[in-house]
Input
Amino acid sequence: MSTATPTAPTTVTVIGLGNLGQVLARAFLDQGHRVTVWNRSRGKADALVALGATVAPTPQAAVEASELVVVCVLDYTTVRDLLTPVGDALAGRAVVNLTSGTPGPARELGTWVTGRGAAYVDGAVYAIPQTIGTPEAFVLYSGDADAFAAYRPLLEPLGSPVFVGADAGLAPVHDVALLSGMYGMFAGFFQTVAVGRSAGIGAAEVTELLVRWLKEALGALPGFAAEIDAGDYRTDTSNIDINAVGLANILAATRAQGVGVDLLQPLHEVFQRQLAEGRGSESMARAIESLR
Output
């Protein structure tokens, strides 16, 4: 693969100019790099051209224009549809794929790109487009470690870069894991608001209190993680017995308010399986064993 001089301007192509692709291209332009862009809808490139970007007429020309090709499109099928016809042009280049996807397709794409003589890095972006380049943003990368190291200075301004391993599927695995936690939080939020509204409590009012409480509750997670990694669930505090009873009371009270328990019932069922195994005195973190 081609290696970049970290401090020198680099040729970089951005394929896909949705909300995220637009911001990525702007960030590269702001760094002084020579940026080529391509998008199915040519009009999305106009603002970037005004900032100094060059529009490639075809995906082939877009790939040939740069040593680094950053792809940010709808899904991995679209990535393959765009790159397959131009596979021969990938040789000697690095492909950084920031398209959201899952581990299996990421590994397949990585193998395919590598087979064409290019380096492959998969990425998962943790930022909304407006926060790209701010301290709040971070990006997970996996795949070719040498390519990541070579282009890290170019990628760093997008968000704090974290390399999670040489297996191209590891960034998507992390992505699935972290987004699962996010959706679990949203599920709890929806349940909170539904119960509050059943008693005439406004969503904004109960959310203010929820955020305050969650900031405290988050402190328990590193301790739970340590228990899970060690496989040692002995505890004198938050055991499954206590939490199963507490959650059962919450479910009963929620039903009494006329609110569904679809979002919380599955967790109670996990607690019940642990109780059936005689694990009631152990830490609530042991619930994870019912998911394996």
